[in-house]
Design brief:
Among the domains are: about 80 residues, no CATH class; about 140 residues, Beta Barrel (Butyryl-CoA Dehydrogenase, subunit A, domain 2), CATH 2.40.110. About 55% of the residues lie in helices and about 10% in strands. Strand 5 and strand 6 form a beta hairpin. The strands form three sheets. Strands 1, 2, 3, 5, 6 and 9 form a six-stranded mixed β-sheet that branches. It has a three-stranded antiparallel β-sheet with strand order 4-8-7, with no helix packed on it. It is α+β, with helices and mostly antiparallel strands. The chain binds ligand 3IX and flavin-adenine dinucleotide (FAD). Flavin-adenine dinucleotide binds next to strand 1 and helix 12. Ligand 3IX binds next to helix 6, helix 8, helix 9, helix 10 and helix 12. It holds the Pfam family Acyl-CoA_ox_N. It comes from Leptosia nina. One of its GO terms (molecular function) is acyl-CoA oxidase activity. Its main location: other.
Length: about 675
């Protein structure tokens, strides 16, 4: 079907936009040159015919999908290599690699995903210079394909409980890798099933019977020529999942597999030939790759949401349903204020986390520079930020992706809308790289520690500096600054209350651990509240900063979204605010009016705002969200691709239904 025009509904929407869409695209891309680079990569990638699917993935078998994903991964690697994209080495936004092309070529992930997102970064982050020189080059050229094998069948969260052992044998200068039980089998690593021939194995180091904690080892698991598993290696795929079905997540066990001493990555800790262990300056440096990936998840979460909200808002502009006024035609569903309530917060939330992700990335890069000269002062705050922002970005964005899906009614249930797949890859971010509740408890640990040290006069780190302010009641103030202060009060109130409970529980005779467990529901609330205060503060300050350089028209729209975000969150968290601030019923009534006014103000810019995410149709991969808005035509075209539609009568009619109808069964 050739579609030349644009749906008149979308044409009309685009004519009401009050700002320059390209200017916003450049801002979201972190610069006009980044937009240009991203588009150049996209032009190249989408011109490769081998990267297009003839048959939609969902109609293929599990095995066919895997084989197709491998084929495309290889072609994509080749094309990206030609464009000079250095995969596995990340920059601030990285829109050209994972952000857009990647998830458009693979709706459900690639088996090479972990090569780029964790194998290469771990070599770079944990290897000494000689090891980086050797392994990085091989990985970059795809001579070796690897993954990050940490999680085991029995333990994912509690990594001190991992069972895989690496025992040093000083006679042969080798480590012996062993999986002592079924629960010690590695379980989950992406690509591990049938794709990778090497992996980083996180294992418990033992020398002369003494444990030295979890360390990273590079282990070859398959022959480089035949791809057969090496002796003593038991490897396979873990099976079908809610999403990531083309990522080839696998299991792995070792039966006394020997590797050379220099296959332990030794940037931070070393084992000498004679078996002497030299400890790193901070044992948590072995957890470094996780910090990096948590930082990047904030951007991924915002990106998934921006794609879902683009689909849902475009569809809502072309979908007409029911009646607002009896004598008028059915309105666009986007005119229903409840629909705007579901969707506009998706745009604002995506902006909030996108701008926070750039800020967090800068904090991470700053820390990296300091770490290189032996300064780890910033690590506790970075760890807390990475954990907490990973959690609230992944849970908020996933909730809103699902809201986008439901806002499209029945059609949002179609795989061809791409909304179910977006939900699948988004919800996985709530679990991987640290399960969300566990990450909130890590955050709470850092907050309680800071609170206690603060009460003894120690200074707070920048994102906790407001803890030092006296929690005196003040009149409610609905300005952005006033709302931010109110959320900081909630954060202080929840943390202070959690600490009091901890103290009371210990005073009543509970051990510190039992007191912690008993107060943990409060503690995760305090952690979330700190994260909210951070996001509100960073989103606002980043937009204030960019507001000085962008046009007045764009500045005004950006602030509409900041306000929407602030007011929406205030109404959502009303209970907390009523408890910890002077918010009154009168204030709530006026905030509700403010919220309704904001929805009305944003309405003419809704399509402009999602167009500014600049997702090409090939990236969105959605029958409902295409730029031209011909959703029904695309739904029908895609339905015709169902293998069942290849013949008017399916053979099962003659085999089963007819005999049933005739009573001959
Ligand atoms: C911006 C653009 C970039 C573009 C990037 C592009 C692509 C990448 C994007 C996305 C990735 C995409 C695809 C990947 C897809 C899937 C991959 C999934 C891969 C995985 O899914 S891979 C497995 C991850 N698996 C976990 O995530 C396990 C979680 N479990 C833990 O992480 C630990 O088990 C923990 C922390 C719960 C307990 O650990 P523990 O028991 O040893 O520690 P404990 O609680 O006792 O704390 C003692 C002291 O260590 C400090 N501390 C702890 N952790 C630290 C750290 N990381 N750094 C610095 N300090 C740390 C504490 O703050 C405390 O400090 P203090 O003593 O001062 O209080
Ligand atoms: C799609 C996907 C891809 C993945 N890819 C990889 C990979 O490439 N490499 C890799 O090594 N791993 C990978 N993983 C594994 C992932 O990192 C773990 O699943 C994750 O860290 C959670 O650990 P778990 O599964 O052991 O959950 P569990 O810890 O068993 O969590 C189950 C429940 O127990 C609760 N819980 C656990 N501990 C505590 C606690 N201390 N306090 C309170 N509650 C607690 C949790 O909150 C949760 O509700 C992947 C997982 C998924 C889903």
């Amino acid at each position: 079907m050739t579609l030349k025009k644009v749906n008149p509904d979308l044409e009309k929407e685009r004519s009401t936009c009050t700002f320059n869409i390209e200017e916003l695209t450049n801002l979201l891309d972190t610069g006009a040159h980044c937009t240009a680079e991203r588009r150049a990569v996209e032009d190249k990638v989408f011109s490769v015919k081998e990267l297009k699917d003839e048959i939609p993935d969902e109609f293929l078998s599990h095995k066919e999908r895997y084989e197709n994903a491998i084929r495309k991964s290889v072609f994509l690697h080749k094309v990206l290599q030609e464009t000079g994209v250095k995969r596995g080495v990340y920059n601030r936004s990285d829109k050209s690699d994972f952000r857009t092309t990647y998830y458009s070529i693979f709706k459900d992930g690639s088996p090479f995903m972990l090569q780029y997102s964790m194998f290469v970064p771990t070599i770079l982050g944990q290897g000494d210079s000689e090891q980086v020189e050797l392994w990085y080059k091989r990985a970059l050229n795809m001579e070796i394909i690897g993954t990050y094998a940490q999680t085991e069948l029995g333990h994912g969260t509690f990594i001190r409980g991992l069972e895989t052992e690496a025992v040093y044998d000083e006679k042969t200068e080798e480590f012996i890798l062993n999986s002592p039980s079924l629960s010690s089998y590695k379980w989950w690593p992406g690509g591990l099933g049938h794709t990778t021939n090497y992996c980083i194995v996180m294992a418990q180091l033992k020398i002369k019977g003494k444990p030295y904690g979890m360390q990273p080892f590079i282990v070859q698991i398959r022959d480089e020529e035949t791809h057969m598993p090496l002796p003593g290696v038991k490897v396979g795929e873990i099976g079908a999942k809610l999403a990531f079905n083309t990522v080839n997540n696998g299991f792995l066990g070792f039966e006394h597999v020997r590797i050379p001493r220099r296959h332990m990555l030794m940037r931070f800790s070393q084992v000498s030939k004679d078996g002497k262990f030299t400890s790193s300056a901070n044992p948590k440096l072995a957890y470094g790759t996780m910090v990096m990936v948590r930082v990047t998840i904030v951007n991924s979460a915002a990106t998934y949401l921006s794609r879902a909200v683009t689909i849902a808002i475009r569809y809502s502009a072309v979908r007409h349903q029911s009646k607002l006024k009896q004598n008028e035609p059915e309105p666009q569903i986007l005119d229903y204020v409840t629909q705007q309530h579901k969707l506009f917060i998706g745009i604002a939330t995506s902006h909030a986390y996108m701008f926070c992700s750039y800020w967090l990335w800068d904090v991470y890069v700053m820390y990296q520079k300091e770490q290189n000269v032996g300064n780890f002062d910033r690590l506790p705050e970075l760890h807390a930020l990475a954990c907490c922002l990973k959690v609230i970005s992944s849970s908020d964005c996933t909730g809103l992706v699902e809201k986008c899906r439901m806002s499209c009614g029945g059609h949002g249930f179609m795989m061809s809308s791409n909304l179910p797949q977006l939900y699948g890859i988004s919800t996985a971010t709530c679990t991987y790289e640290g399960e969300n509740t566990v990450m909130l408890l890590q955050t709470a640990r850092a907050l309680v520690k800071a609170w206690e040290l603060g009460s003894r006069g120690r200074p707070f780190s920048p994102t906790m500096s407001y803890f030092a302010e006296k929690n005196v009641p003040s009149k409610w103030d609905s300005s952005l600054e006033g709302i931010l202060n109110a959320f900081q009060k909630v954060s202080i109130g929840k943390l202070s209350s959690s600490v009091s409970s901890l103290q009371e529980y210990t005073k009543s005779g509970l051990s510190a651990e039992d007191a912690w467990n008993k107060a943990s529901v409060q503690l995760i609330g305090a952690a979330e509240a700190w994260g909210r205060a951070v996001v509100l503060s960073i989103y606002k300050s980043e937009i204030e900063r960019y507001g000085q350089t962008v046009s007045p028209a764009l500045k005004s729209v950006l602030f509409d979204l900041v306000e929407l975000y602030y007011v929406h969150l205030t109404l959502e968290k009303m209970g907390d605010l009523l408890l910890y601030t002077q918010l009154s019923e009168k204030d709530v009534v006026s905030l509700r009016k403010k919220y309704e006014d904001l929805l009305e103000k944003i309405r003419p810019n809704a399509i402009g705002l999602v167009d500014a995410f600049d997702y090409r149709d090939e990236v969105l991969n959605s029958t409902l969200g295409s730029y031209d808005g011909f959703a029904y035509e695309r739904l029908m075209t895609e339905a015709m691709k169902s293998p069942l539609n290849a013949e008017p009568v399916n053979q099962s009619f003659h085999k089963y239904i007819k005999p049933l109808m005739k009573g001959k069964l």
